[in-house]
Amino acid sequence: MKPDPGYEHFQPINISVHGIRETDVADAPTMRELASDIQAFVGTSPIVAHNMAFDYSVWRAHTELGNLPDFINPRLCTLRMARYLLQRPAGTNGPESLIHDYCPGLAFAHHDASEDARVTGELFLAMLRHLEMPLGQLVKTFALTQAPRQG
Q: What span, in angstroms and rounded, lies between the C-alpha atoms of 45 and 10?
């Protein structure tokens, strides 16, 4: 998606990580234009990410800009799951290490948005099977939630 007006600067460090340049998103829709499609897709389902703290901070920033409404969906983080539920040692909770242990042979291009999403989903399902915990129980005991704002 294309950044909002005033946020179009593409920092070289970020380009070196994900490879996305201004020209790549010049004709893409903005977050505001995608908001209703995103909400329709997500619905009331739990939202899963690897390092939810980062992803949710981006969502919250767009909420503050008025691009997206707040949501109250449960949030699940494969990084937190690895650290706290699976008790994995520090330094072994990156996607590559987790894939090696929970999805051997799964290949992916790290920092490509589609690939990161696909692999996070695969990791989440594999970790859920490993925990032998139904999704509903995981959400009840572990999900991050936020109450909707009053106002």
A: 32
The per-residue pLDDT for range 25-69, each reduced to its tens digit, is: 999 999 889 988 988 999 999 999 999 998 888 888 888 988 888
Contact 10, 22 (CB under 8 A): yes
pTM across the whole model: 0.84
User: DSSP string covering 8-67, please?
Assistant: ----HHHHHHH---HHHHTTSPBHHHHHHHHHHHHTTS-EEESSHHHHHHHHHHHHHHTS
Task: Say which residues have a Cβ less than 8 Å from residue 32's Cβ, sequence separation at least 6.
Answer: 4, 66, 67, 68
- Cβ neighbours of residue 55 under 8 Å, at least 6 residues apart? 49
6-26 per-position pLDDT tens digit: 888 899 998 888 889 999 999
Name residue, tokens 């949030």.
75
